[in-house]
Structures are given as structure tokens and as C-alpha cells.
Specification:
By secondary structure, the chain is mainly alpha-helical. Helix content is 76%, strand content 0%. It has one domain. The chain is flat and about 35 Å long.
């Protein structure tokens, strides 16, 4: 049985857990989110997306 979970969903859960445990404070977390949105609008976005897709494909082949 294959289970597909969105990377955005997993990252959101990780951020929520880090905020709740105190390892990530609110303002640095918001700065990281703003940096991510800014990075997504640059020319590096396709390269980052293909790298993440390659890693996800590699992980899916392990199982």
C-alpha cells in the first residue's frame, strides 16, 4: 500500500512541532517563510524544485 503525503504538509507539521516545542520562535519562523516565498520567485526555483523532486523520487524507490 502506497501512501502519498505532500511535502508542504510534512514541512508544515515539522514547523508546527518546532514552534510548539520552543525550538523555533515565531519571528525567525516567519522570516524563514518569507525567505522561502522570496526564493520561490527567483530564477533558482526550477533548480530547487527539480532537486527536491529527485530526492523524493530516490526515496520512493527505496520502499
Amino acid at each position: 500500500m502506497a501512501l502519498t503525503i505532500s511535502l508542504v504538509f510534512l514541512a508544515g507539521i515539522a514547523v508546527l512541532l518546532l514552534l510548539r516545542t520552543g525550538y523555533l520562535r515565531l519571528w525567525p519562523g516567519l522570516a524563514a517563510v518569507l525567505f522561502g516565498f522570496t526564493l520561490a520567485s527567483t530564477g533558482m526555483a526550477p533548480s530547487i524544485n527539480s532537486a527536491i523532486s529527485s530526492v523524493a523520487g530516490w526515496i520512493s524507490q527505496l520502499g
